[in-house]
Queue: 4 jobs
Job 1
Amino acid sequence: MKVFLVDDEPYVIELLKNLIDWKALELEIVGVANDGIVALREIEKLRPDIVITDIKMPGIDGLELIRLAMKNDDAISFIVISGHKQFQFAQSALRFGVTDYLLKPLKSSELINILERVIQEKKERENQIADIQSLHDALTGIKGGINTMFLDMIVSSAFDWSTGQMVKEPLQKNIDDVNTQYYLQLTDGFFLFLICKIDQIDENSEISTIVHEYIRNDVFELFGDYCSVLLFTYENDKLIIFLNYPNENCHAIEDAYGKIEERGKNLFDKFENISISLCVGHAVDDVSDIRACYQSAYVAMIDRILFPSGNFNIVFSRASTMEQQASELVKEQFTLDFKNDFRAAAVQFSAVDIMNLIEQAFAGGIIESGEQNTRFCWKFSIEIFHFFLTLLDESSDEKRAMTALIQKMENASSILQIKQVLTQEIEEEMKISLEETKKTENVAVSIAKNYIQLHYQEKISLKSISEMVYLNPVYFSVLFKRQCGINFVDHVSLCRINVAKGLLEDIKYSLSEISRLTGFANVKYFSKIFKKYTGLTPSEYRNKIIS
């Protein structure tokens, strides 16, 4: 906490500074003043937590200083210094909200006691303020959208984001648990998810906002009176709507679809290059099935690309038999031969071969008359992308990459775009993996060079260094030359020769000693290598330098 001292007697200021150990109390003296006017200006600028002030001062006295300063910041704690003759003024100061007063002559024990109490009071006040703010924030959160946490939980748990597969297990909750945990008022009846998805050629966030707001208002108006609970949330530019309604309102809910579709067509036919789909899942009557309910709406969203663009469509979730047929098509294309070919292309980072394989598989899996084409493309894209990520091993963040793929495929408005998203994401992950590989290689060479620089006197081999950096010796040799421009053995020899040159300048070292100090096996070999790289024998080099 910050402390400011005010007294017209400089020696009193110095006394206060040295009277106690301020640091021990976790206090810092941030400023001092010898009159009230300067003090007021500095207090407004420095905003101290505690002010210790005399009463009688030039300019404005201590009482006026307290009154004016507290106008700007009533959180400051004031401690007044007074003599016995000014005791009545000190008592008056208490009416201004002054924390306490000190009588002269000043005593360290009294000052410490007062400061400790002030510090404790301030901490308690800060804790109270923090508690009040936390309560306010919590209440605001509850009022503003704690209900939507339930939807967010459903959406986030619908997929295993590391594999892209839908989670099959039912939700382990009953209606009472959900109501208690999420402050909802769900009732027995039906639960239903709708997803509003916009496909637009020219990206325009304002259009998206307008559409979502329109759908929200229409859903409130047309469905609200028939629902026990009606909630909204957003996820990856999708408007997600949750309905809970009693059995007797089923027909009213079904009638509302027709009304909202009619309104949508009348309004959104005016928008160019935009297709708006309201995707409807299967209604369920058990909270434990609510995740599957959302997933069925999500699958309806996948199927939306079967409809023409430039219109408002309501897309209902279709038969699960199409899902099975799509899965069978994926198995037919994702053969062992395909995996082997794909693995070979991925290991070599051959983007062209990978794209050709994907093209062939898509062509083989899509059949002209089958509406399961969209689901095949979706499932196959996820399957092959996950396989690709496993080939990259630890160089890829599978959850991040898979989430990016799925979210981008959601925005695809055709089978062609789904395929384009897949190929683009594979290319992107290949770039990331290559960059990581380069970083690893750079580090490996750097470690090797540093080791050689420090251990040139010792026996150094390509095998021992490659083992140190966990690389194959042949690969490391190629890598080292590519990055350094010379062979590994040449680099080691040059490092030793450069050290030898320095030693040759000092005649106290014999050639035998220099060969030993620089890691050469013997003088003869030292002389041979030295002449190879310098054109001179060690003796010739020494004579040349000395002369």
Note: DSSP finds 22 helices and twelve strands in the chain.
Job 2
Amino acid sequence: MPGLFGLSAANPLLLLGALSVASPIIIHLLARRRYRTIYWAAMDFLLDAQKRNRRRVQLEHLILLLLRCLIMILIALLLARLMFTPTGLAALALGTAEVERIVVLDDSPSMSARQGPRSAFDQAKARAIELVDSLIAQRGNNKLTLMLTSNPGRPLFSGEILNEEFGQRFREALEGAGGADDGLQPSDRYAQWAAALEQVRRHIDEQDVSPNRAVYLLTDLREHDFPIDEGEESGEDSVKAAMAALEPHVDSILIVDFGEQDTTNLAITDVQVLEKSIVRDRPTNFSVTVSNFGPTDATGATVRLVAAGAMITRELDAVPAGGEQVVNIPMTFVQTGHEEVVVELEFPDMMPADNTHHLAARVVRGVRILMVDGGDPDLPGAVSGRSEVEFLRHAVDPAGRQRSGHVIRVVSVDEFESLSRRDLQRPDVIYLANVYQLSESRVRELEEYVEAGGGLLIYLGDKARRDFYNDMMHRDGEGLLPVRLIDIEGDPRRETGYSAVPVSTGHQLATIFSPEIMLGARLFLWWHTEIPEDLIDGGQATLISRVDHPQRSPLMVSRNFGLGRVLVTTTGPRPNWNNLINLPVTVVALQRATEWVTRSDAGRGTMLVGSRIVEEIDLARFEPRVRLRPPAGDDVQRLVTTDDETGLTHIMFGGAEEADERARLSAAGFYRLRLSEREGGEVEWLYATNVDPRESDLTRVDAGELVRGYGVEKLGVITGDQVAEAAGTGGGRRELSRTLLTLLVMVLAAELLLGWWFGRRRS
């Protein structure tokens, strides 16, 4: 804001340096000679001469004192970077000040919405070109910086001087050689305005050359981009906070609105695989969510799913205004490997960018289950009474024409201990069937496995060592086991049996223990256990069922551990512990329990545009250099690195420090990671990215409420037609550094010359 008479300073505190004007005066006063009066007749002639010269000497001293005071004031003003905002006749006389226009162009998907022949993005490009042409015509000291919200860290133009040559380059960058359709187009990346405004501030700190800066935000002014009430949880991502931090560094912040009042839009906002894994030769159900962001009901929409050379079409009922409709589409894959799944919405609306959804399907032979047999190590998985997993294996993968979709491997405890860490991460589910104990290192690796999303099923039995499970697996509620073992309870003679009682009716597995399903089930032995109250209260553990016994001991308890799940059953899969193995319903119960803990792998590799791609690579099998092929453009290459802290060997694409790479990973579609095997051959892993569903909501924010809610004095909202007018024909703050420096040199020279001349006259 201009100060007194249009004057202001970049460093106002340094104006206090003007107080140093007192130093020449103090020095002058201290340097004055003190005379002692001595009466001498011959001095009368000298006194007459001194009286004649006194006025001239005093005038010379005063001139030099004023010059020295002026020098101190000019130095203070120069350090404070004094600025002048010309107005009225002064503006006409001084002309245009040096101004840098920083233009941030919103190239998010919502800018592609159109009602007529031109989208909001096309209009914004046209107005940006008009702004540049207008500034060039002024022939002032203008500069321009152009950033895109998809990648603000890499400006298209940075502090460029506006002239005819720049205007041509600017037009070609935005419109291309063949017109608007051949030039800059909207990206598929969500607009993160807080990050963009922060990047503007960093640009200003790095440049620090122009005293005047005006920021233009060319956008469609959507509610999801500029929330008025962001809440305290927004933190560093707050647009309001970023704008307030930018305000002291600029003269104005103008939001240029190119949005349309019509918000009609139908979009595919989610596609989910209802199964945990996509298994070959087994139907996979895709749940497609279509949302209506418009003010009226939408009818006549069609959803089409295309995959593996097949196409399935579903017609939608009327999608209510502001609501959604979910349609399930089943598909069976006949081959394993990576398959591209494309879901398309056919409906004439404003924004086609959100009518397509990509999904990377990884079709497997079956859910990988590793069963650790705590029985006789010489008979792992054998059909023997001593095997702890005999019943579990046949229940989870029963014989018959209908495939269970499970691939089971049985190992002994010793074999489980000898597995490499990489092999331990491969299964989707791990069973611990009456395991005596494990090594401390294996327990830690098992925790890493579950924390990363793996599933763990624990069946306790007579071989379970209480101290091991309490000290290593439970760890006072911090470990995998949600219960603390006390002692084995029940009737070993099998004379008295007890029933299972459901407790948490809201749990997905609670229906297994309903009286109708568990009719005839009898429990003879079980581990009496306790669940820490803080696990229950914190929602980390759930008591699914208990034993109908006076001690009310837990029977089945679940626990969420990181991204994975743990399920513990306190009675073992043995005939002397219960009669569950004789009940046909137990097969269904085990199938459901296995499905509940199974690692969710179906949606792996499908993400939003702009997400990072991170994979762990086995360097014993693959070469360290890998390539990522985006939907369009050249391959991105990367070397596999090893994390010094975790020891994991992994590859990452799209890191925060890789601005160029992030730009190439900002397109919706399919990405293929290509790895070369050391023994020859090549392997491809598939990934899919999609537009952020928030872009589909075209609801606008009220401009007046936005300005009032943000409370930023220099913030204003204008329409696209007012851009050139807002640029003005002059004004801006003029920094007076050159003028002050010239004056300082002149005053210093005058002080030196006058001091020499005055002194010469006196000598």
Note: The chain has four domains: 4-91, 98-262+703-731, 367-597, 606-689.
Job 3
Amino acid sequence: MSYNILVMSFVDKLLPKDKPQEYFLTLKVGVETMAAIVWEVRGSKIAIIGQGNSTIEEKQDLVEAANIAISQAENSLPPDKIVEKVIFGLPVEFIEANKIKQSTLLELKKLTHKLSLTPLGFIELPEALAHFLKTRENSPSSAILLGVGPKNLTLSVLRVGKIYENITHARGENFLQSVEEALKKLISNEVLPSRVLLYDESSNLESLAEELVKHPWHKNGAFLHIPKIEALSKDDVINALVESAAAEIIQTVNADEFKTTEVKEEVPAGAKAEEKEVRRDEEEIKDEAGLLGFHKNKDVLEEAPIEEEEIISVERTPEEIAPPPKKLSGIKLPSVHIPKFHFANFHLPSLGGIRFLPIIIIVIILLALGGVGVYAYYQIPKAEVRLLVGVESMQKEVEIILSANTQTVDSESLTMPAQTIETEVSGEKEAKTTGKKNVGNPARGSVTIFNKTTSGSKTFPKGTILLANNLKFSLDSDVNVASASDTGEGLTYGKTDAKITASVIGPEGNLGGGNNLTFADFPSSSYTAKNNEALSGGTSRSVSVVSKADQDNLLTDLSTELKEKAKTALFEKQGEEEKILDESMEVNVVNKKFDKNIDAETTALKLALTAQIKAQAYRTSDLNELARVILVNNIPPGYEFSPTRTNIKVNDIKEEKDGSYKASSIISASLLPKVPLEKIQRDLAGKSLSDAQDYLRKERSIVGVEMSIDSPFPFGKDKLPLKSQNIALTIAGS
């Protein structure tokens, strides 16, 4: 399975334009499991090439588990390609103070050395999921991320796309009780997001999510609404890690830090080699200025010599990291230019010895500076206020029609314009054969056939079956046997010799001489046969051949791969406003050619396939218009429709006779409360932060607020700007 991800600048830096195509490895390290993902850059997209998984057994180091997972993931790579650069995906419990714990560092170092990997950095799972949700939902999300591990629970508070808090709590026997205890440990638990997302190593996330749904959340005052519980799939976590690597969420490392250095150390006589190795590795962690580019009480950029080509710098966007505190180097006031006037016949009277002239001049200057300062204090400071509001969800199940014969949305018939996007893809795939077949020679020899009847001669056609000891033999040619004759002393049977062949190949058809044979279709009282000499020459051996199941399975596998390949091509063809309806995707085989037929002796079967893929696409603006018409009568008072939060889920799609598609769909939308932004903007002007918070608490629709002030003045840092237009108000759903 492959997936397509937009390439960000981080990947551009990893792939210099003058170097050949590279493959990258993302290694998700868990407590009990390991997942490896190999991906590459294709044009302006990233495609997942292969995946592998392994279990970290007890008393097993990470190297063995990683080797198994990576080997599986590399199966899809070309034979001449290898993966060298790795990015680690780590749970919160492996990280402390934004650094990887030393015990984990030691294991990761062994892993990279023994598997010849170059580390690029690591990603925290909550950070990766936050970025993933923002990308998928087209807006910053708010939620409680609940990582369910075998021994611990990890809770991360996500507000408007940012992780504000991570805690780890021991998982007890009672899952719900452990979650309640973990929630109480959160610092920011006054008002929690009304959404809980489960993820990570547990194999029964769905059942745990059902337990949480049944929990009496109305008794927990930290939630304004009953939280919506969801379980993220393993594919979602994998996608999040790869997308985060592309979107510069990782923290970079210096690859030179992973080079092993010799540590001279006296080892007592009799000490085990293993103990010496462990002690040496531990010393390397302390003496090598830190693994993965993290140093205790030091700044690697200031104290370590760095080669430019070995360091990959990451430029994070404002949404990914909080801005650093500003340093005040002094107050800069706007300069005021005073024009000079010249009058030819006018002179100021001489003030002579007026003693107060300097004081008057100073007062005038101070008043001028004060006026300029007041004006600057009114004009310059700016603030950003993000209001978190409760979101109401609505959905309705309807049957919509997607038709290429219409250009506008028909709200009465619920018809949306659609267009067909198609492409043709080709590929080859080889697989091992599973069919088995015995080949060899059957036993052969001669028999004498006796005709005991007096009614006349008897002709036996070629292929007539004779039986002996549960073995079947057949005549090699037509045989005529004369009738028996009466000599007066008794009957003399008619007889003739004939060639026969065993019906099966192999030594089991061999038969010793002197055996009586009977005819399958005639009584032994009339006709019999006897082999005076042994029937021999039967041999057999088992060989691999092509079975029908081999051809069917190879066709299915290659069709699935081409469908994923075609998805990438179709997504590249779609416009910015277009969305492909996955359920409408059709695969039509244009040409297929197997290199071997059924029952052909071979150990491998190859298939060349060309397929045409087509799908229906619609415009998001049309969907928003249709959703507004469908849901408008059900919007509760005080809320308004949000076009950016509209989604369609198709359960069933059928092609109609006129070429249109009828889809049984669930249209869902999120409603935002109506907030008087202009009034709030005016009322907030000049308020202190505490007064602003008290004021905003009176608005029932507002459940949280984030404020940041940008001012060059050393005073008034706790007040919003006096000029209301300098307060930028935005709304985000919680």
Note: The longest strand covers residues 435-451.
Job 4
Amino acid sequence: MKRIFLILPFAIVLILSACSIGSPKQETNYYVLDYQPSSEKPELVQARNNGKVLHVSNTSINRAYNRNQLVEKENMYKVNYLKNEMWANRLSDAVPNLITSRLRAYNIFGNVTRNITESDPHYYLETNILNIEKIKDKEPRAFLRIEFVLRDSMDQKVILEHKSERYKPVQDDSYVSLVQHYNTMLMEETNLFAAKCIAHFEGRSTDPKALKSIRNPKAHERVIIENLEEWEEIKEYGELLLQTKFDTSNNITYKVEHLDSLDVKIAEEFWYFNEPLSLLEGSYRVHYGEKYEINELVAVYPRQRSVLTRNWCELKVKITDNSQNRVRQLYRIWRETNDEFVYEPIAFDVSPSEDEHGTEEKVWILPEGKYMLTLGGSNWSDLKDFSTLCLREGDAQIFTVIVNRDVTRDNLLVGAGVLADDFGFNDNRTHKGAIHLNVNLTSNNEVDEKDPIYSLRLDSKFDNSVDYDLRPFHYKMRSIYDLQSIFSKDIALRFERDNYNLKNTLMLYPWKKEKKLLGRFAFYGRADLSTHLMDEYTYFTSNKNIILKDLEGNEVSRLLGQDKFRSKIALFPLRLKEGTGLTYHFPLPNASITLRGGYGWQQNYNKRFYSSPISVSEDGVQYDVYQESPDQFSDGVEATLILAAGNILNFVSVNSIFEALFPFGDDVNKARFENENTINFRIYRNISVDLELKLSYNESERKWLMYDLNSYLKLSLFY
């Protein structure tokens, strides 16, 4: 059983990897085109036919659509084939069958056949489908482009031709509705072709514009005229795209003004860079930039994409400290005016800190010119903590700013400049490490609720982290080894204990970063370890007699006159936490919040771990009785809340982790709660003060809220 728990962290990784390789097989749906007599037009039914034989040939399908899958068009030139939405029959056969049924119902020809051997035809009807697709857009539409060609069988001359494009708005995402629209559009085009056939065999015009001038048109001529009026109302769409040179998932807005024939604004809307915008054919004025101060006229053509020439400048501001750690810092951008040495404000922003995973630097869209960047609340005229930069049209620059995190110094800016404009550039280090030397004043009531222990500790901490992001996977690991010495009211200065904590988290992102909301959602698997590498002793101020008992309460050893006692052996107690579930990251202006929830399980291996002694007297001799703690295993629903806020007031950082486990159906294992809080105050360069508060409540172990409060004066060396 124990081995199973030990291998569970590796099983999580394998399960999540399998999720990315395959998913449950989806059911395939099949669709048919079906003849609907209710869509027939009675005014097209002829009392007498012309006695001729018409052969309806197989429909020719454009190669892009001549397949079993239904087709969606993402933009003007990109199509997707839906692997689970299929035609039950080949369109080349299903479409002419519908047309044949409709023409037979109208009694225009003596016979309409699909079989060439029945009789020698007088005419051949050829149909060509050039497009049959769903156009994905802010206004989704079903689109059909079809041609009808009527030929004389004797000389193969074309005697009648009908070409048409037809749209139908798609009101829902059901593919049943989409196929129904296709069915309806095919029948409407066949009705129109039938009306033109009737007019042609009567020797009358089939041109809808010519028929519109007739005073009393016949019934079939009115069908042709009505179609012309419908066609004139059809909206033709094109696309507009503004694309940044930087690859970013942040929303950058621009404004589009709709213009009439006199270039007067009649409407406006807002859209985003890097996302195509569907617009009706016409002229538009586009405004972009932080204040929408750059504008340009653009023409949009039907079924074409207009890409605006990049005549703006792009700027990213990256703020780090001397150790190349990203720093949360307020900064302002100013632009030089026409007056020499005078700058106007553009906007301000806050750079993301190292803890804000997934938060990108803002991409500024700016006109060509000279700019000044100031840190904090400085005005450009203060000439303090500033740097300047010249941007030319089409530039895309990463402006790196190095700041001094020592708040006792007057100057915040260390240096600034363009260090990289290569768009494959990524200086985020996978591994980061630090050595911390601490002076720690502690208070702890873990042993006795009313008699806390106060002590002064000197310790060193080795902190290493790995952060590897390769979508759809993101792996984070943090390893902390803490070696402590202690001085307390009852104990002289000596080596005290060591602790080792290892935390691993693997996340699988189903959606890309470009998805503004869904891109922050992920599946997670985690495996945490807490242990120590050396034996740990409990020291006494006076010699004591000790009785050791095993799990069953049997005495295993009796020690007399001891000044210390080995309460823990190397590696034990060994704490393991595993979990898997869902996580979501909320970036906030001044902080970030991560929520996790799912299935969790924990194991506490307590081999030769003795705690909570009781005093007994035997034959007048006083003994402290220690009993070995049992192993504990529990699983249930886990929930985690992670809060990170960095560089508050330029020198304070806060991190808080709250964890809860609600075990399944076990009265012995009660719900347990843990909370770790760290507040860091930077004092001078690599010197800081840390306040750490750990809270835990586990009713199955102790009936009170346990806390462990630590304060550190810390010297940090980063590598």
Note: The helical segments are 2-21, 91-106, 175-201, 208-212, 219-233.
